[in-house]
Write a structure and sequence with these properties.
Blueprint lengths: L1 H31 L3 H10 L2 H7 L1 H21 L9 H34 L6
Length: 125
Amino acid sequence: MRDIRNIIAQTLTLFGSVGTLLCCALPALLASMGAGAVVASIVTSVPQLVWLSEHKVPLFIFAAIMLVISGLMTYINRHAPCPIDPVQAKACRRGRRWTATIFGISMLLYLVGFYFAFVASHVAV
């Protein structure tokens, strides 16, 4: 049961972080590179990005909460016992490495999205 909760938390964390990246970081990056037409084309093709951008504060709050939950679960389970069977123990260790990697990627995506949504938009050019 603990593994399923961990997988669900990691998945929601990753989706929340990707959502912050799509709502704020990607359009800002493309616009800063002079690809405003590409941003307009993406927004026309995927109008849900406008909704995400309009609701960026709740999106970032949700992603932050999921990152905290995921980080706590990863930290708590870092020394949990693995099975005695060598094959299962190897899979257990590999799963823990993947969990830590996914958490790190999620954190990086969240921070990039946060920078473009709240910091870069207020920096004077």
